[in-house]
Amino acid sequence: MKLKLYFEQFPLGIRRQKKKKIAQMVGVTEYALQHWINGRRKPTPIHAVGLEKVLEGAITRYDLRPDIYPEE
């Protein structure tokens, strides 16, 4: 699943809250997370693993960085 699709499944108000909480849990700014969601930038390998853990596998590190992590 793409990161953008993950967030689009939530209503707008909840989506904003989730973005803020997830950014804090991963240790990045909401601005950085938004860049990843929009595809302007890719998360670092460490942040890709962090997102995978925070999102409980809904988005995998392979989804985020197929150039680095092989598909399982």
Describe it:
This protein is mostly helical and 72 residues long. The protein contains five helices and no strands.
Distance between the termini: 14 Å
Low-confidence stretches: none
Helical run tally: 5
Over the alpha carbons, how many angstroms does the gyration radius reach? 11 Å
Average pLDDT across residues? 95
Structural class: mainly alpha
Helix content: 55-70%
Main beta sheet: none
Summarize the structure.
By secondary structure, this protein is mainly α. 61% of the residues lie in helices and 0% in strands.
Notable traits:
single chain, 72 residues, mainly alpha, 434 Repressor (Amino-terminal Domain), 0% strand
Break the fold down into its secondary structure elements and pairings.
Elements lengths: L2 H6 L3 H15 L3 H9 L6 H10 L6 H4 L8
Helix pairs in contact: 2-3
